[in-house]
């Protein structure tokens, strides 16, 4: 694992961004555990993953699932508090938890860590520990471990119940970089012929391919710029299902993958290209592809 010596980006990743600020619900983040596993456990008691709710004996209606489209931590915390006004540290019964997905666990984990002054950021990519031999679309949190002077990955979604069905043989507060691949790594491996693009996607809907990796690459780049969007938000040059990626876009994504892989080492270059290049720049409104409509960010 690459080791850094206190990169200058740490203050940036300690600041609360548009999606990670708790806003009027900031008080809810006080008096929470300071350890990674403890914070993840808090989230386990607050959110239920929409696609595996049945594992907990819960059936979700379409109305229940509306919360998966909520982008901002402030709004997510508001919905959690409206359901149950007790401390966030009190685990809710599965049926009382807010439906979400890996991105929601991650965004709230980032918000909780930053509220404690810990540098953290969301990473979009692919997890290779879901029991089917594929790398599934996934989000995790990357946090700065000050004692070891390095970034580490934590999967805040996987709880004891999910460990019964997923093939996890590692510490979830220190996810190995070959078990979760940031989108830039997945892109680079596929471009080099070291991995098959068809192994990257979402098996639930039977979609995969280089186009999916490119889309997650753009989402990861946006997250590194503190704009953590939904897994189905679309904008700019992001390719659609099975789209053929043109030569100019290949060059662009090669460059973007390099920047996201370096992250801190290419921070200014990443921010510049994501700001100046309209193909990558996040606009005021993005396309929610599940709802088939434009929505303000």
Task: Give structural notes.
The model has no long low-confidence stretch (mean pLDDT 96). The longest helix is centred in the C-terminal third of the chain and has 16 residues, at 247-262. A hairpin with a 4-residue loop joins strand 4 (135-145) and strand 5 (150-154). The radius of gyration is 18 Å and the shape is globular. It has 297 residues and is α+β, with helices and mostly antiparallel strands. The chain is 28% helix and 16% strand. The chain contains seven helices and eleven strands. Strands 3, 4, 5, 6, 7 and 8 form a six-stranded mixed β-sheet that branches. The protein has a three-stranded antiparallel β-sheet with strand order 9-10-11, with no helix packed on it. Strands 1-2 form a two-stranded parallel sheet. It has helices spanning 36-44, 73-83, 102-115, 183-191, 210-224, 247-262, 267-276; strands at residues 47-49, 98-100, 120-127, 135-145, 150-154, 180-182, 200-202, 207-208, 233-234, 285-288, 293-296. The chain starts with 35 loop residues before the first helix and ends with a strand.
- Low-confidence stretches are none
Mean pLDDT reading: 96
Structural category: alpha+beta
Biggest pleated-sheet summary: 6 strands, mixed
Helix content: 25-40%
Rg calculated over all Cα atoms: 18 Å
Order of helices and strands: HEHEHEEEEHEEHEHHEE
Total helix count? 7
Strand content: 15-25%
How many beta-strand runs? 11
Shape: globular
The termini sit apart by: 34 Å
What is the fold's blueprint, element by element?
Layout: H1 36-44, E1 47-49, H2 73-83, E2 98-100, H3 102-115, E3 120-127, E4 135-145, E5 150-154, E6 180-182, H4 183-191, E7 200-202, E8 207-208, H5 210-224, E9 233-234, H6 247-262, H7 267-276, E10 285-288, E11 293-296
Parallel strand pairs: 1-2, 4-7
Antiparallel strand pairs: 3-4, 3-6, 4-5, 7-8, 9-10, 10-11
Helix pairs in contact: 1-3, 4-5, 4-6, 5-6, 6-7
